[in-house]
């Protein structure tokens, strides 16, 4: 039975691909092996409608349009080869090998399965060489946030999602899912508020799909890129000169450049650029006696206040 | 997904694949498509009943069944237009795109350019829907480390250690690069310590070949084991104000409770005592309680030492008290 269904579906794909014209119900019932089993018109239509949905579920675009016999109404079906086939590309052995390595990246089974299917398709346009030489690379990606799967599927289907964030119900059209510093973010248009960035782990309930797939279109990539920048560190606005104890406070030293300023014995002066006083003051306080602010005085006061809060009374 | 849908989806790729590889074995096709050989045989038995409308013998896909069953070899004649697989679905393209970006974050500039080439060829329709940024440090460091792994060379690193907050120059035999939690790491055998160590790539300030060959240390430990060993170590309990709640999201926690008074209690593995003390110093008064209290005392000592150093330099003016 399953084999019969598979044969009919595959024959349908081949017929709809091979035709330059839209095929009517009658032509499909006549020509495609497998539909003859339908005893009545109704039974055939039900069978065909189900098959059509199955094909769309596989990502195959079944187009509707006027057949040769039509007087204008869309009464026929076809699949356009340009929509159907993998583009005529060829992957070099080195490229195919890297695709093979990508297949082991996801720890999420659904996404890993998707990469596997993509890799199998790409095997027809390029053969990998041995991945032996790349075995020392083991990148892994995860998406443990419970809200992630729904956001992912809805975003790719261009379907809005509803969820609660900061105590408020939202309806959001997803633009981009961004992984940064190990955390996932959803950039999108909150229909009630405007374009917003949502940290996926802070979504307070399980997101639900809202409305139909394909309900919106994405803005230009440049526009999305511009909005995605809000996750990047703000550009530095000022510099603080810090005396760093040798071989300590590497996080600050990596951020800065040597500053030609006199320091106490055993220290070196480093100019550290920063965007937010509070952020840089915390980073300096973290190093304790290994990082001392030389100038300016206002940053030093912030660090001193911070240290006094930790030191407690009596110091 | 019904078995028919899965089977047809597979056949749309299997048919052009087998056609392009005359004489390929059932076992090999089974391996590529990750199904048992018996399933490939079932798929072939579906394919031979399919073809162009009309159903004349020459219109049908044909496979030499004798050769298949006697020798396990597949020869497929395909009169249909199914000579290329179905294009990637949006989900396949998006998952692959992110996976390729993850690989890209670990490799040198030349290999990164190859990956950019793949992405360009695939012309991924989902490309603008996904983005990935990993902390993987300096490209020059990755190039030196990657080459040293392939050539089995010993390196000297300049490393800003996270656990003690101290810069060291370990001599290491590098073995593997991996990505976890948004950052790239190097697994290497530390010659000085005589054991495997994990180095975060963006803390490797420089990597220099020593000219010596790496020693034989066997297989490096599994990165999963490293993550687990962190999770299984000593834990601390912090009570955080709303301002410091990011800690609960940034570091792996073993428990996390929001109390009635709005404060959040988190329990997290202590990567090292010095690491936790630095975290406490940076959090300041946004952490309200620490358990065990020894960590808070150590942070207090460090803060007092820092204040004394400012005092000694005559820089501790301002709102003292």
Percentage of residues in strands of chain A: 15-25%
Into how many domains do the coordinates of chain A divide? 4
Largest interface, counted by CB within 8 Å of the partner chain's CB: A-B, 116 and 121 residues
CATH class of the largest domain in chain B: Mainly Beta
Which bin fits the share of residues in helices of chain B?
40-55%
Q: In the CATH classification, which architecture of the largest domain in chain B applies?
A: Roll
Mean pLDDT of chain B: 88
Kindly give the count of domains of chain B: 4
**Low-pLDDT stretches of chain B:** none
- Count of separate DSSP helical elements of chain A: 11
Topology:
The complex is a heterodimer of chains A (315) and B (321).
Chain A: H1 2-18, E1 23-24, H2 25-31, H3 41-57, E2 63-65, E3 76-78, H4 81-84, H5 93-102, H6 109-123, E4 137-139, H7 148-156, E5 160-165, E6 168-180, E7 183-190, E8 194-199, E9 208-210, H8 221-228, E10 238-245, H9 250-255, E11 257-258, E12 267-274, H10 277-286, E13 291-295, H11 297-311
Chain B: H1 3-20, E1 24-25, H2 26-33, H3 37-47, E2 62-63, H4 65-71, E3 73-74, E4 76-77, H5 90-104, H6 109-122, E5 130-133, H7 139-151, E6 153-160, E7 167-168, E8 171-180, E9 183-190, E10 195-200, E11 204-213, H8 223-231, E12 235-240, H9 246-250, E13 255-258, E14 264-269, H10 273-283, E15 287-291, H11 293-313
Helix pairs in contact in B: 2-3, 5-6, 10-11
Account of the protein in words:
The complex is a heterodimer of chains A (315) and B (321). By secondary structure, chain A is an alpha+beta fold. Chain A has four domains: 2-84, Arc Repressor Mutant, subunit A, CATH 1.10.10; 93-134, no CATH class; 148-231; 238-311, no CATH class. Helix content of chain A is 37%, strand content 22%. Chain A has a five-stranded antiparallel beta sheet with strand order 8-7-6-5-9, sandwiched between helices. In chain A, strands 11-12-10-13 form a four-stranded antiparallel beta sheet. In chain A, a hairpin with a 3-residue loop joins strand 7 and strand 8 (194-199). In chain A, helix 5 (93-102) packs antiparallel against helix 6 (109-123) and helix 10 (277-286) crosses helix 11. The termini of chain A are far apart. The model of chain A has no long low-confidence stretch (mean pLDDT 90). Chain B has 321 residues and is of the alpha+beta class. Chain B folds into four domains: 3-77, Arc Repressor Mutant, subunit A (Orthogonal Bundle); 90-129; 139-220, SH3 type barrels (Roll); 232-313, Alpha-Beta Plaits (2-Layer Sandwich). In chain B, the strands form four sheets. In chain B, strands 6, 7, 8, 9, 10 and 11 form a six-stranded antiparallel beta sheet that branches. A four-stranded antiparallel beta sheet of chain B has the order 13-14-12-15, covered by helices on one side. The longest helix of chain B is centred in the last third of the chain and has 21 residues, at 293-313. Chain B starts with a helix and ends in an 8-residue tail after the last helix. At the A-B interface, helix 1, helix 4, helix 5, helix 6 and strand 4 of A face helix 1, helix 3, helix 5, helix 6 and strand 5 of B.
